Amino acid sequence: MDEMKRYDLMLEAYTELKPEIESVRALSPILANPPLTQVLKEFGTMPPEGLFMGVASDGLPMLLNLHDSVPGPLLVLGDEGTGKTDLLQVVSRAAGITHPNNDLKFGVLTNHTEEWNGFERIPNNVGIHPLYADSAQEFLLTIASWARGSKTDTQSILLLLDDLEAATNLDFEARQILRWLFLRGPARRVWPIVTLNAERSVNLQPWLEAFRTRIFGSIKDNRRAQQLMANGADLHTLNSSAQFTLREGNHWLRFWLPSLD
């Protein structure tokens, strides 16, 4: 992303933060990350088009502009245990706090539905589906139909896919729908946010080409980081459970995740 697209992630309206946020930022995320509800309370009202994703190293909220399709689908890469699922869960919790369910909804595809216990109670949730079940394909069909149909100018839906590799085991029709959503979804207010274990990326290169926006967690193997287009990101220095980075122009922008309440 270039500097002109910085709005996709951060808004200038939040340049003055309360001392509590600044004091937390001064600490390492390893020591203590404040709970999501506290962080969102400190930031105040979010813009209706802004999707909260974390807190940048300069103390500003990381926001994705849901009304600008330029970033395309988001791919979250990292070693095992680096908080990829946590990022999806922070995004979904924040969506439920900051957006009316008529404006922003989310659905989850995962092979580990037990990790999402309780999230079904968020009003914005439209389903948590195991990738190995028929309901996963039905859910993708529903989202694709919604994307092709009429909608208001304010409605968006998040497609949270936890493990791209597992999704490649879907049947042919479901995989084609998923490819279409990666290609056309953001322009139609469907935002795929997809995780992938970095070690498994070597066999999924054709799928990776769909993602020009990549969010990286900790990756210890520098060669693998370079293969994934993360040159200069120093991914091995990231907090392995709560810190991420993405490219912004010629620079790397780091951000951390609040803890879930």
Question: What is the beta-strand fraction?
Answer: 15-25%
User: Strands of the biggest beta sheet: in what spatial order?
Assistant: 2-1-10-9-8-3-7-6-4-5
Along the chain, the helix and strand elements come as: HHEEEHEEHEHHEHEHEE
Q: Give the N-terminus to C-terminus distance in angstroms.
A: 32 Å
Give the averaged pLDDT, no decimals. Answer: 89
In which range does the helix fraction lie?
Answer: 25-40%
Gyration radius, in Å: 17 Å
DSSP strand count: 10
Q: Report on the biggest sheet.
A: 10 strands, mixed
> What form results from the Cα inertia axes?
globular
Low-pLDDT parts are 3-7, 11-31
- Count of alpha and pi helical runs: 8
Helix/strand-derived category reads: alpha/beta
Commentary on this structure:
With 261 residues, the chain is of the alpha/beta class. It has a ten-stranded mixed sheet. Helix 4 runs parallel beside helix 6. The longest helix has 15 residues.
Short descriptors:
23% strand; alpha/beta; 8 helices; 261 residues; 10 strands
Brief digest:
With 261 residues, this protein is α/β, with parallel strands linked by helices. The protein has helices at 19-26, 36-43, 84-98, 134-148, 164-167, 172-184, 205-208, 222-227, and strands at 50-56, 61-65, 74-78, 104-110, 125-130, 156-162, 190-197, 213-216, 243-248, 251-256. The two termini are 32 Å apart.
Topology:
Layout: H1 19-26, H2 36-43, E1 50-56, E2 61-65, E3 74-78, H3 84-98, E4 104-110, E5 125-130, H4 134-148, E6 156-162, H5 164-167, H6 172-184, E7 190-197, H7 205-208, E8 213-216, H8 222-227, E9 243-248, E10 251-256
Parallel strand pairs: 3-7, 3-8, 4-5, 4-6, 6-7
Antiparallel strand pairs: 1-2, 1-10, 8-9, 9-10
Helix pairs in contact: 4-6
